[in-house]
């Protein structure tokens, strides 16, 4: 699990990072609001632990910006401000929980675990409710056949390797959705390959050479810089 911890207090960042790492989690830290927003879109963490009182861009504003790009990631405010008004503001900006400093380290771990567990359960329920894409479907000039592992463009077959087909089919099954490198590796190869030498960029380049009129200026398989890839047709 990946945690993003945001606080202008270096000692607090080190404390939370130590607590997270002892729990077996990967913790990235940011010292301010602008840095946090940039780091969020680069790392796409599973949960955000967010201080309120920071110079220039405070925690409430950071939460508001996060909600513009991700409605579901859990946000836990960690603040010395314990007034009910502060808590109400935090929740109104899209926060999911509010823990007052100083805090018990074990309680922090439990709250993070509860938030992520609730988020994942909600995501699974949403996926279960969503209609499944049929085994054969058309998207723009493309036809995808999952049973035959076949892609047609304008009625002509596109010759793809099995992994190229899986990658393209997965992206086309979620048209317009931006998927990060780690997300694609975990989905197509498995979590155990996340630290391996698999290069999604190489697969993308080879697919573009087979489906794009101009691979240097792709019209279908697009790169969203700093985030991942998407397919639109």
TrEMBL record:
One of its GO terms (molecular function) is phosphorelay response regulator activity. The modification 4-aspartylphosphate is found at residue 51. PROSITE patterns: OMPR_PHOB, RESPONSE_REGULATORY. Pfam families: Response_reg, Trans_reg_C. GO terms for cellular component: cytosol; protein-DNA complex. One of its GO terms (biological process) is regulation of DNA-templated transcription. The keyword Transcription regulation applies. Residues 2-116 form the Response regulatory domain. Residues 134-233 bind DNA. This is Response regulator. It comes from Adlercreutzia rubneri.
């Amino acid at each position: 699990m990946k945690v993003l911890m945001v606080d202008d207090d270096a000692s607090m960042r080190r404390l939370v990072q130590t607590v997270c790492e002892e729990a077996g989690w990967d913790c990235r830290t940011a010292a301010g609001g602008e840095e946090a927003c940039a780091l969020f879109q680069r790392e796409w963490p599973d949960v955000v632990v967010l201080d309120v009182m920071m110079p220039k861009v405070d925690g409430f504003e950071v939460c508001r910006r996060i909600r513009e790009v991700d409605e579901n990631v859990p946000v836990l405010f960690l603040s010395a401000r314990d007034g009910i008004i502060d808590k109400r503001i935090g929740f109104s900006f899209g926060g999911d929980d509010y823990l007052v400093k100083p805090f018990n380290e074990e309680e922090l771990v439990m709250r993070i675990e509860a938030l992520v567990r609730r988020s994942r359960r909600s995501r699974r329920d949403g996926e279960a409710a969503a209609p499944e894409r049929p085994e054969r479907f058309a998207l723009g000039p493309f036809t995808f056949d999952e049973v035959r592992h076949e892609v047609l463009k304008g009625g002509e077959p596109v010759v793809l390797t099995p992994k190229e087909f899986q990658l393209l089919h997965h992206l086309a099954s979620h048209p317009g959705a931006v998927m990060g490198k780690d997300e694609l590796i975990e989905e197509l190869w498995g979590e155990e390959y996340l630290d391996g030498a698999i290069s999604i960029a190489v697969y993308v380049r080879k697919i573009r050479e087979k489906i794009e009129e101009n691979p240097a200026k792709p019209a279908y398989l697009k790169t969203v810089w700093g985030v991942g890839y998407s397919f639109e047709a």
